[in-house]
Automatic annotation (TrEMBL), chain A:
This is ATPase. It comes from Macleaya cordata (Five-seeded plume-poppy). It holds the Pfam family ATP-synt_B. The keyword tRNA processing does not apply. One of its GO terms (cellular component) is proton-transporting ATP synthase complex. Belongs to the ATPase B chain family.
UniProtKB/TrEMBL annotation, chain B:
Keywords: ATP synthesis, CF(0), Chloroplast, Hydrogen ion transport, Ion transport, Membrane, Plastid, Thylakoid, Transmembrane, Transmembrane helix, Transport. It is found in: Membrane; Plastid, Chloroplast thylakoid membrane. PANTHER family: ATP SYNTHASE SUBUNIT A, CHLOROPLASTIC. This is ATP synthase subunit a, chloroplastic. Belongs to the ATPase A chain family. InterPro entries: ATP_syn_F0_a_bact/chloroplast, ATP_synth_F0_asu, ATP_synth_F0_asu_AS, F0_ATP_A_sf. It is a multi-pass membrane protein. The chain crosses the membrane at residues 39-58, 94-115, 190-212, 218-239. F-type ATPases have 2 components, CF(1) - the catalytic core - and CF(0) - the membrane proton channel. CF(1) has five subunits: alpha(3), beta(3), gamma(1), delta(1), epsilon(1). CF(0) has four main subunits: a, b, b' and c. It comes from Macleaya microcarpa. One of its GO terms (cellular component) is proton-transporting ATP synthase complex.
């Protein structure tokens, strides 16, 4: 089957540079298409009649078209004459490439897929481990946080206790001073009151004696003696 | 009288300029068998590029990847992801197969488009992407067939062949045919795309030697990548299909 494909493809795909195997016609380096052969032949005929007439041109054109039809229906023998344009040419290359592919697969597996894959997996596992350990320290952080909060609470309690005590002390002191002051004031007051009383008594006494004298004088003045 | 030789000469000149070579091979004889030397040479170049770059990049892996290692890790992740989506959870053992398939085809295709291979003249034929040759694509498609048969048989034993009469025994011929069409379509898709792509570029370059072929070349790069991806994805899909449980 591939031979048939080759034969059919060779007609259309062949080009000048690929033609080397068949014997060349004297004048042309071109591919030995059947057209050219016929043209060539016709050309030689023309050589016998040197003047290129319109008629001969016409006939050459006719022959060319004929040649074209011949070309399109070229027999397989002609295609075989032209070097094979082997598009579907299966040969030892196939198993060799297959072997190369298998070799490449094994080699790449040894130097690329397995080592790098293992390395990447290991790194993945490490990163995951580190991540989980980071989650653990977050618990630790929480504990530390609680500790700190407890310390803060204790400190706050201490401070408030100290504050209260200080408040109490100061109030006691203030009260003591106030009581002292009050006592002093009361004492002074009492003293002043006593002094006032004494004075009052003295004044009353003095007044009493004066009353007696005054009443004597009044009696003397009123009662004519 | 001189009209014909003259026109023929100009024709020959045109042919020389636009020497589009299709199906021309540089043959080597190995023990009575013929091989396409240009395919083998380019495939060696591709294998050398792959092995060399992988060796350099993965030689000493760092926890924080360097540029080359980063790229290769990205490629490996990509391959793993591709295998995982197509095959499922048991994708592990198939990563080398799918990955090599993808990388080999991808580098082959791009090497055909990027490396200036016209510089090296072969006695016959020319250097091109290895995937430009039907031998290469078939050589990649056949292991795929073998691989999915192997996957199915190891996973399910002989009951794997039960899938041929699923969902009804009427489909038996079509199911059997599928085993032939799968590698055929795989190989011909890749072969046709790459050959056509390179041909289009060559023909355009021969017609308009500047500027115009550049978009087509970029399109060719795009096609090359897509074809590699398609081949690898389909291979993985076939393997996954033969491994999944049928109802």
């Amino acid at each position: 089957m591939s031979n048939m494909i080759m034969a059919s493809s060779s007609k259309t795909l062949i080009t000048s540079s690929s033609i080397q195997s068949t014997p060349k016609p004297p004048k042309f380096q071109l591919p030995q298409f059947s057209t050219l052969k016929i043209r060539n032949h016709h050309h030689h005929q023309n050589n016998k009649t040197p003047i290129l007439t319109l008629n001969s041109l016409k006939s050459s054109a006719a022959i060319a078209t004929a040649a074209a039809t011949v070309l399109t229906m070229a027999p397989p023998s002609l295609a075989a004459e032209i070097e094979k344009a082997a598009l579907f040419d299966f040969n030892l290359t196939l198993p060799l490439i297959m072997a190369e592919f298998l070799f490449l697969m094994v080699a790449l597996d040894k130097i690329y897929y397995t080592p790098l894959g293992n390395f990447m997996d290991k790194r993945d596992a490490e990163i995951r481990e580190k991540l989980s350990s980071v989650k653990d320290t977050s618990a630790e952080v929480k504990q530390l946080d609680e500790q700190a909060a407890a310390i803060m609470r204790a400190a706050r309690a201490e401070i408030s206790a100290a504050l209260n005590q200080m408040k109490k002390e100061t109030t006691a002191e203030v009260e003591a001073k106030m009581a002292e002051g009050r006592k002093k004031v009361e004492a002074e007051l009492a003293e002043a009151l006593a002094a006032l009383e004494k004075q009052k008594d003295e004044t009353i006494k003095a007044l009493d004696s004066q009353i007696a004298a005054l009443s004597d004088e009044i009696v003397k003045k009123v009662l004519p003696i | 009288m001189n009209v014909l030789p003259c026109s023929v000469n100009t024709l020959k000149g045109l042919y020389d300029i636009s020497s589009v070579e299709v199906g021309q091979h540089f043959y080597w004889q190995i023990g009575g068998f013929q091989v396409h030397a240009q395919v083998l040479i380019t495939s060696w170049v591709v294998i050398a590029i792959l092995l060399g770059s992988a060796t350099i990049a993965v030689r000493n892996p760092q926890t924080i990847p360097t540029d080359g290692q980063n790229f290769f890790e990205y490629v490996l992740e990509f391959i793993r992801d591709l295998s995982k989506t197509q095959i499922g959870e048991e994708y592990g053992p198939w990563v080398p197969f799918i990955g090599t398939m993808f990388l080999f085809i991808f580098v082959s295709n791009w090497s055909g488009a990027l490396l200036p291979r016209k510089i090296i003249q072969l006695p016959h034929g020319e250097l091109a992407a290895p995937t430009n040759d039907i031998n290469t694509t078939v050589a990649l498609a056949l292991p795929t067939s073998v691989a999915y048969f192997y996957a199915g048989l190891t996973k399910k034993g002989l009951s794997y062949f039960g899938k041929y009469i699923q969902p009804t025994p009427i489909l038996l011929p079509i199911n059997i045919l599928e085993d032939f069409t799968k590698p055929l379509s795989l190989s011909f898709r890749l072969f046709g795309n790459i050959l056509a792509d390179e041909l289009v570029v060559v023909v355009l370059v021969s017609l308009v030697p500047s500027v115009v072929p550049i978009p087509v070349m970029f399109l060719g790069l795009f096609t090359s990548g897509i074809q590699a991806l398609i081949f690898a994805t389909l291979a993985a899909a076939y393997i996954g299909e033969s491994m999944e449980g049928h109802h």
